[in-house]
């Protein structure tokens, strides 16, 4: 039996390790916009939604797992979807300045402030995804009306539930909680009553 020289074996192992280390698993958010909002009467305001480039590029990365979640690609369009669900009129004001003169009563700016994913210790252990978004509603001149952070969490088995399903559960809960937060805000209700 003939054996390969030691340097060939070492080179092979290093090549395979290098290839595996270079692969990144991307947990993709759902492609469809969230639509499972509770029925409600819309708040009588014209709100501009500001989606920043930073929001669109927001992602969670875990280098030692070679894993990422491009969360901003989901939060950005769904922020506008939430605004359209809760406010009477919505204007897209991305990148427009100055805001005064655009005909809006207020400007809503979302920002992802937290995202994390954990893995269970075994295949039957729970994996969690937690997401928090700050909603910042201001007058066109920049005075704060309402600032609130809402969250969503998804849980599933590490070995039996797809990471995409766990992420989708967290994002769905985030949107439902965000709708509740806007609708229960006394600050927004008082501001709308003055318009």
Share of helix among residues?
25-40%
Strand order across the largest sheet: 5-2-6-7-8
Q: How many H/I helical runs? A: 5
Mean pLDDT reading: 88
Strand percentage lies at 25-35%
- Poorly predicted segments: 3-20
Tell me what the structure shows.
This protein has 195 residues and is of the alpha/beta class. It has one domain (40-194): Rossmann fold (3-Layer(aba) Sandwich), CATH 3.40.50. Helix content is 34%, strand content 31%. The protein contains five helices and eight strands. The chain has helices at residues 6-22, 53-57, 72-86, 163-183, 186-194; strands at residues 25-26, 43-49, 60-62, 67-69, 87-92, 106-118, 126-138, 144-157. The strands form two sheets. Strands 5-2-6-7-8 form a five-stranded mixed beta sheet. Helix 3 packs parallel to helix 4 (163-183). The longest helix has 21 residues, at 163-183. Residues 3-20 have low confidence and may be disordered.
How is this fold's topology laid out?
Layout: H1 6-22, E1 25-26, E2 43-49, H2 53-57, E3 60-62, E4 67-69, H3 72-86, E5 87-92, E6 106-118, E7 126-138, E8 144-157, H4 163-183, H5 186-194
Parallel strand pairs: 1-4, 2-5, 2-6
Antiparallel strand pairs: 3-4, 6-7, 7-8
Helix pairs in contact: 3-4
């Amino acid at each position: 039996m003939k054996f390969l020289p030691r340097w060939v074996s070492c080179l092979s192992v290093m090549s395979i390790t290098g290839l595996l280390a270079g692969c990144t698993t991307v947990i993709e958010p759902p492609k469809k916009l969230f639509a499972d909002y509770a029925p409600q009467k819309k708040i009588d305001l014209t709100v501009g939604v500001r989606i920043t480039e930073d929001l669109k590029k927001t992602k969670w990365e875990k280098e030692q797992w070679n894993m990422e979640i491009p969360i901003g690609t989901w939060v950005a369009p769904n922020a506008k979807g939430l605004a359209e669900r809760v406010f009477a009129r919505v204007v897209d004001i991305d990148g427009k300045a100055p805001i005064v003169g655009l005909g809006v009563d207020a400007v809503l700016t979302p920002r992802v402030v937290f995202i994390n994913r954990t893995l269970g210790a075994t295949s039957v252990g729970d994996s969690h995804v937690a997401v928090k978004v700050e909603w910042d509603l201001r007058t066109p001149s920049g005075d704060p009306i309402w600032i609130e952070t809402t969250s969503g969490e998804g849980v599933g088995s590490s070995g039996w539930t797809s990471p995409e399903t766990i992420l989708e559960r967290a994002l769905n809960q985030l949107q439902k909680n965000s709708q509740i937060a806007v609708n229960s805000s006394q600050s927004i209700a008082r501001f709308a009553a003055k318009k």
